[in-house]
Amino acid sequence: MNFSSPMGTAAVLQDMNISVGHHEFVSVLGPSGCGKSTLFNIIAGLIEPSEGKVTVDGLSDSGRIGQCGYMMQRDLLMPWKTVAANVALGRIVKGYPRSEALNAARKILDRYGLGEYADHYPNQLSGGMRQRAALARTFLAAEEILLLDEPFGALDNLTRLRMQSWLLDVWQDSEASILFITHDVDEAIRLSDRVYVLTERPATVAVTLEVGMERPRPYEIVLTPEFASYKTEALNHLHTGAGALFGSEQPDS
Length: 253
Ligand SMILES: Nc1ncnc2c1ncn2[C@@H]1O[C@H](COP(=O)(O)OP(=O)(O)OP(=O)(O)O)[C@@H](O)[C@H]1O
Ligand SMILES: [Mg+2]
What we know:
The chain is an alpha/beta fold. It has one domain: Rossmann fold. The protein contains eight helices and eight strands. The protein has a six-stranded mixed β-sheet with strand order 4-5-6-3-7-8, with helices on both faces. The chain has a two-stranded antiparallel sheet with strand order 1-2. Helix 3 packs across helix 4. The radius of gyration is 19 Å and the shape is globular. The protein binds adenosine-5'-triphosphate (ATP) and magnesium ion. The site of magnesium ion (MG) has 4 residues, from helix 1.
């Protein structure tokens, strides 16, 4: 993928080949600015790649646009709408009758422990609750393929661990295939069946980790030797290339 501007052409993604199977949880881990959100924008059909294609069930067609639920990196709830109205939005946009969409929203909010907040406004919720509501909206918009771009990036560590457990429960209860972007190595390994570790821009896949650890995976799984070996491998690849974890400045020698 290249972005062109009057200043020139910037290559962002190169030789990128990733896949997600039915009901798989796949993470994309990579340094800031390498092209992760761009990759999701391409998969969701928001931008056209300069080369390459996206296929769903072997078919390369724009029909996937309705099949993908996309929670963007700074996905905000609309402050002037109630939580239920926010969650119902995806369905309303798809043409469902408003009352039916609102009923579905209330049902999913109940399931996600937010039932009593359905008629509140987003600013009356905690950060974790807001992210859960935004995820509920994404799930309700499309249940087959979910693209989640750093959904827990702004949360404190404890809330983040709880949200991971919650997301795993929600996912296991569904048929969804999830593609998940994160900067957090532990989060990627704990959640995923497979982790693609990307290089700096132009991003390509540095290593693919097939995470074979059994589920369910409690918080403490990060303390096991098996977890540590996946983490070491991911970190080794993030450290190679142009000093990916710490920016691109390298000593001259
Ligand atoms: N529409 C655009 N036009 C031109 N350049 C863009 C555009 N969108 C993104 N870029 C550039 O592409 C590169 C990758 O951006 P992207 O947002 O995909 O990175 P990212 O990996 O998601 O970063 P972060 O982890 O910080 O969210 C950046 O250098 C960015 O400036
Ligand atoms: Mg991004």
